Amino acid sequence: MVNIIYGIIGAVVGAIVAFLIQSVLLKKRKEQIIKDAEKEGENLKTNKILQAKEKFLKLKENHEKTIKERERKLQSSEDRVKAKEKTLSKKIEEANRKDKQVENQRKTLDDKILANNKKQTELDKMHQKNVEELSRVSGLSVDDAKASMMDALKDEARTGAMAHINEIVEDAKLNANREAKKIVIQTIQRVASEQAVENSVSVFNIESDEVKGRIIGREGRNIRALEAATGVEIIVDDTPEAIILSCFDPVRREIARLALHQLVSDGRIHPARIEEVVAKTRKQLEEEIAETGRRTCIDLGIHGLHAELTRMVGRMKYRSSYGQNLLQHSREVANLCAIMAADLGLNVKAAKRAGLLHDIGKVPDESPELPHAVLGMKMAEKYGEKADICNAIGAHHDEVEMTTLISPIVQVCDAISGARPGARREVVESYIKRIKELESLAMAYDGVSTAYAIQAGRELRVLVESEKVTDAQADELSFAISQKIQTEMTYPGQVKVTLIREKRAVNYAK
Question: What is the pLDDT of residue 390?
Answer without folding.
Answer: 92
